[in-house]
């Protein structure tokens, strides 16, 4: 299979990463200070691959990862996030039911158009304050039978 990605253009050398689902409160409500403690512990143990999504906690995880990683040397870690949903702030009583135990007050819609992907990237850059190493197209709808990985350098 041919690809436009040059051989060895990007190598993920990390053997272990930290995913953002727990930070998004999928399993229990955790405070921001507890989330920062988890991230700091992972960093102290040598974790340098951090994967999140704006879906996790309705933007909570992406914001929390960004707040933690913003002062770390950018060349020292890999940061990945995802596109496939657009988020808009809503009153707390309008937050849709989700799996998240303590989501931020956002609603969402699935969208994979070029404009939606561009907006999702811009929103993730703004929320996290980080340069994105890997961007995944996430939660592809049933109508779409393919997926891809977009690398941003």
UniProtKB/TrEMBL annotation:
Question: Where does the NADP-dependent oxidoreductase domain start and stop, copy by copy?
Answer: 16-129
What's in the GO CC field?
cytosol
Descriptive protein name: Aldo/keto reductase family protein
Transmembrane residue ranges: none
PANTHER family to which the protein is assigned, alphabetical:
GH17980P-RELATED (PTHR42686:SF1)
Q: Name one GO molecular function term.
A: oxidoreductase activity
Upper classification of the source organism reads: Bacteria, Pseudomonadati, Bacteroidota, Sphingobacteriia, Sphingobacteriales
Gene3D superfamilies according to UniProt:
NADP-dependent oxidoreductase domain
Alphabetical list of Pfam families matching this protein: Aldo_ket_red (PF00248)
Q: Which organism is it from?
A: Olivibacter domesticus (Pseudosphingobacterium domesticum)
